[in-house]
Amino acid sequence: MTWNTLSYTGWGRVRQAKGRVARPERRSALARLTAAPAIGMKRSYGDSCLNDGGDVIDMTRMDRMLSFDAETGILEVEAGARVGDIARRFAPDGWLPAVMPGTGFATVGGCIAHDVHGKNHHGAGSFGEHVVEITLIQGETVKVIGPSKNATLFRATIGGLGQTGVIVAAKLALSPCKGDIITVTERRIENFDTFIESLDGSQSTYTVGWIDATAKGEELGRGILEEAETGYGLVPDAKPSKSVRFEAPRWALSAPIVRAFNSAYFRRVPERGRTSVKPITEFFFPLDKLHGWNRLYGKSGFHQFQCVVPVAEVAVLRAMLDKIAYAGLASPLAVLKRMGPGRAGLMSFPMEGYTLAVDFPNRGRAEALIAELEEITEKAGGRVYLAKDATLDAKRLGKMYPEVGKFAKLVAKLDPDGAYETDQTRRLGVRSHA
């Protein structure tokens, strides 16, 4: 197995790393490698996939679908398999991954390591709750773990940021679906209070809200609510893929341009609302057709701040949106969702409440603003999503993730030499909680 020295980044491109990278194609080749963190498509935004000055194992060539039971919907795949590929393969047969993040390029190993959530968290919970079994390599040791087999290690691996070893393969319980098209209903929502009421009242399987993060005053929190259900029928022609081939200039995301874009985007949906039929991938992975869209933020990259706060603290989100609007730093990408209680791991992000995600170009006061939002989140009893994080103050980790001590003690026993540590776990001092 050849090691190559490469420079690489997370999707936000704010943090960078340089080190040796190996790309095994078979489990036998993987077993011969020295212990090191595993990475996938590097779609986590911050530094969770970085190991500057050290080694990493790129799992993207280990992407095979190994077996499928059409009676139970149990699919076994290698860790490098991508969620979008699974959806495209099995939706025509009436099956979908039970939980899908906002990009189909996310690998199964990455979805487990971050216990990702989707547009149906309020009903289906997190990704890890639908994982039946994980094959894990720790140095020269191979372990097969599950909810009732080495359950403590299983809970530490799901949402565990890759700290318990290299995820080689997994068995997933797919969910029945009605087909490979999806019917999407879009409605304009005029303000924050109405948005919360609409999210709480939605009976749809899939629900997500786009927020105009530049809106102020009576329009604060306005946006578009999308509700969707899968179905059978003729599949509409998929929109052709496009690529961003250049670094956008700084002015492209200036405050006046973002305000104008958001206003036009809000009004693209008629006042009466509208319903359309789409290929499933266009709803679940709306930005995947624009390859390299992170270049729109320019060479300096961008941050995504994502938090979740308890139901009783919903007013905190209003205060955050107000602060963001007056800062004038937001991009057009801002999302609001209702979350249920489902979480599968000791370090899983979800909690019952509301989650807000906003992108900020990496310039000016962006990191200072995010620090203020993180403080508000902590005081509200919420937490920041580590899959998106590049800035969190290590002092906040224990309050946001109260099981980090238990997690750190287990990881310290499994990996006393810190072979699986990453830039993020070192920055946050995860293991110090042991």
Automatic annotation (TrEMBL):
<dbReference type="Pfam" id="PF04030">
    <property type="entry name" value="ALO"/>
</dbReference>
<dbReference type="InterPro" id="IPR016166">
    <property type="entry name" value="FAD-bd_PCMH"/>
</dbReference>
<dbReference type="Pfam" id="PF01565">
    <property type="entry name" value="FAD_binding_4"/>
</dbReference>
<feature type="domain" description="FAD-binding PCMH-type">
    <location>
        <begin position="9"/>
        <end position="177"/>
    </location>
</feature>
<dbReference type="InterPro" id="IPR006094">
    <property type="entry name" value="Oxid_FAD_bind_N"/>
</dbReference>
<dbReference type="GO" id="GO:0071949">
    <property type="term" value="F:FAD binding"/>
</dbReference>
<dbReference type="InterPro" id="IPR036318">
    <property type="entry name" value="FAD-bd_PCMH-like_sf"/>
</dbReference>
<keyword id="KW-0274">FAD</keyword>
<dbReference type="InterPro" id="IPR016169">
    <property type="entry name" value="FAD-bd_PCMH_sub2"/>
</dbReference>
<protein>
    <submittedName>
        <fullName>Decaprenylphospho-beta-D-ribofuranose 2-oxidase</fullName>
    </submittedName>
</protein>
<dbReference type="InterPro" id="IPR010031">
    <property type="entry name" value="FAD_lactone_oxidase-like"/>
</dbReference>
<dbReference type="InterPro" id="IPR007173">
    <property type="entry name" value="ALO_C"/>
</dbReference>
<dbReference type="GO" id="GO:0003885">
    <property type="term" value="F:D-arabinono-1,4-lactone oxidase activity"/>
</dbReference>
<dbReference type="GO" id="GO:0016020">
    <property type="term" value="C:membrane"/>
</dbReference>
<keyword id="KW-0285">Flavoprotein</keyword>
<keyword id="KW-0560">Oxidoreductase</keyword>
